UniProtKB/TrEMBL annotation:
Belongs to the purine-cytosine permease (2.A.39) family. This is Allantoin permease. It is found in: Membrane. PANTHER family: NCS1 FAMILY PURINE/PYRIMIDINE TRANSPORTER, PURINE-URACIL PERMEASE NCS1. GO terms for cellular component: plasma membrane. Pfam families: Transp_cyt_pur (PF02133). One of its GO terms (molecular function) is nucleobase transmembrane transporter activity. The keyword Membrane applies. Keywords: Membrane, Transmembrane, Transmembrane helix. The chain crosses the membrane at residues 90-107, 127-147, 154-170, 182-203, 210-229, 253-274, 295-317, 337-358, 379-397, 409-429, 453-473, 493-513.
Length: 545
């Protein structure tokens, strides 16, 4: 009883302090941090200690089941077919895009699995201490934006769940003004979605593997069941596998390459920020399962999407891309409504897991680096759930801001150069050897110069990025921007161009103009890191929020 009373008084004092003083929100500087005294950092930036290195190969498998088994993954291949390519094209694109995602993901993931450091720290070796913040801010913006929009798309799952229980909800009258940009029904669904998602956001990263494992167990049987049902209702038709392309010649080639880039680019963020997850790896080899698994799962999910979309025309008289629309059509009988409820709940879990794995953790790690006095990972995800979910007003972005959506989709072209430079720096330049203690020192060797910028990375990035800007401008405003056909074609292969060109260019520049002072790695550094890792307590669940 005394303990409970004491705890209650402690909480009350903390609440009072944080409501009256901004200083009370400052996080303590961790004494075991690798950073020197003049650099403020917190425990979530430090290398992960052994007791929290819990991710095995199965954990990474669960992660990718979580990331790829979602509504978007279901729709990609079928939309490829409906855009003019054939079934064989769609499957080959999914397979090749899987390898284009897997190779840089595994290569950059090795940084985290060996040194147990997050992406914002890892990229300092190639970009320089202060220029790395440009990469962190860029990814932070993308993560928050897509966290917001992916959360809004989760409304469909909630609506399907509620309609399965109360069919009358489908005709709920709208009491919001047109200027709100959202209906009463959708607002209710969005509120419930965020209430459901919020506690899952608070799960520490090293424990997320269990959430991903739950999704990996639940989603595939559900997807298989939906596929079998649609095939049986359609009479076993396999016409979708016989679809031939309707675009030919060079137009088909560029449509093929553009689609490949689009499918690859959709998962390009993880190729950059994979150290945020691989840092929790139990062994260096655990994360290599991603190399065969990503292409396999991309094709696997795409096949289900192709089959169900192809069968849907025989059931509904039109192609139905969205699996939740198929689920919603089952509500004519009590048994159908029960199955619709179960499937919609599993799709909801799939959507939330994807939002966590692809967006919230990335954003939280970035905020921890940008504002270490005020943010740890827990505070980062809380901030995302407030500002991303409500501050960005995603329903208005989704409804009216087509040019903004196009810009943010195209903005992902920056990730190709980021990934390419990281791979070249770690494997070709440094031969997998980093001085981790120096990565935490703003005056250390990875500062490069007084500006904290590795000019080679700066030059390579903008040399690759600038030629792609006209293509981005045309995508944002096609009616007002006219560019040469060559620049259009270049933009259609933007991710592959950015990754490969930056990788080769950075390696050559570092070979011709080596930054010798950043290459040495002392034994004291190695021992210091090992000692720091053994003492560090990561702040996911230890630091006070």
């Amino acid at each position: 009883m005394n303990f409970a009373r004491e705890r209650l008084h402690t909480v009350a004092r903390e609440v009072k302090a944080k409501s009256t003083s901004l200083e009370a929100w400052k996080l303590p500087k961790n004494t075991s941090s690798l950073a020197p005294d003049y650099v403020w950092t917190n425990a979530d930036q430090d290398p992960v200690p052994p007791e929290k290195q819990t991710w095995t190969a199965w954990s990474f498998a669960g992660y990718w089941f979580s990331d790829l088994f979602n509504v978007t993954g279901w729709q990609i291949a079928s939309s490829t077919i409906l855009n003019g390519l054939g079934t064989t094209d769609a499957i080959l694109i999914a397979l090749l895009a899987g390898f284009c995602n897997a190779v840089p993901t595994v290569l950059n993931g090795a940084i985290g699995s060996k040194y147990h450091i997050p992406f914002p720290v890892a990229i300092r070796s190639s970009f320089g201490y202060w220029f790395s913040y440009f990469a962190v801010v860029s990814r932070c913006i993308l993560a928050l934006f897509w966290f917001s929009l992916q959360g809004y798309s989760g409304c469909s799952s909630i609506e399907a769940i509620i309609v399965a229980i109360w069919p009358s909800f489908a005709s709920l009258p709208n009491n919001l003004p047109e200027s709100a940009g959202i209906t009463t029904k959708t607002m209710v669904c969005y509120l419930i979605y965020n209430i459901f998602q919020f506690p899952l956001l608070l799960i520490p990263t090293h424990k997320l593997q269990w959430l991903f494992l739950a999704k990996a167990i639940l989603v595939p049987p559900m997807v298989l069941g939906m596929t079998i049902w649609t095939c049986l209702r359609a009479g076993g038709s396999i016409e979708i596998f016989q679809v031939q392309p309707t675009v030919f010649g060079t137009d088909r080639v560029w449509l093929w390459l553009g689609t490949l880039t689009s499918v690859t680019g959709g998962y390009s963020t993880i190729a950059v920020n994979i150290p945020d997850f691989s840092r929790f790896s139990k062994s260096q080899g655990a994360q290599w399962i991603q190399l065969p698994l990503i292409p396999f799962l991309k094709v696997f999910v795409s096949l289900f999407g192709i089959i169900c979309t192809g069968a849907s025309i025989h059931i509904y008289g039109q192609y139905v891309w969205d699996p939740l629309k198929i689920v919603s059509s089952w509500g004519t009988t009590p048994g159908g409504r029960f199955l619709a409820f179960v499937c919609a709940v599993i799709w909801l879990i799939a959507q939330v897991c994807t939002n966590i794995s692809a967006n919230s953790i990335s954003f939280a790690n970035d905020m921890t680096t940008l504002f270490p006095k005020w943010f740890n990972i827990r505070r980062g995800v809380v901030f995302a759930s407030l500002v991303g979910a409500w501050g960005l007003v995603p329903w208005k972005i989704n409804k009216a801001a087509g040019s903004l959506l196009s810009f943010m989709s195209g903005y992902a072209i920056i990730l190709g150069p980021f990934a390419g430079i990281m791979v070249a720096d770690y494997y070709l330049v440094r031969r997998r050897e980093l001085d981790v203690i120096e990565l935490y020192d703003s005056r250390g060797k990875y500062r490069y110069n007084k500006f904290g910028v590795n000019w080679r990375a700066f030059l390579v990035f903008f040399s690759v990025f600038i030629p792609l800007v006209p293509g981005l401008a045309r995508v944002v405003s096609p009616s007002n921007v006219s560019i040469d056909i060559g620049l259009r074609h270049l933009y259609s292969i933007s991710w592959l161009f950015g990754f490969i060109t930056s990788l080769v260019s950075y390696f050559l520049l570092m070979k011709i103009f080596p930054a010798k002072s950043t290459m040495a790695r002392s034994q004291s550094s190695i021992e210091g890191v090992e000692d720091a890792i053994s003492q560090t307590i990561v702040g996911d669940d230890k630091e006070k929020a």
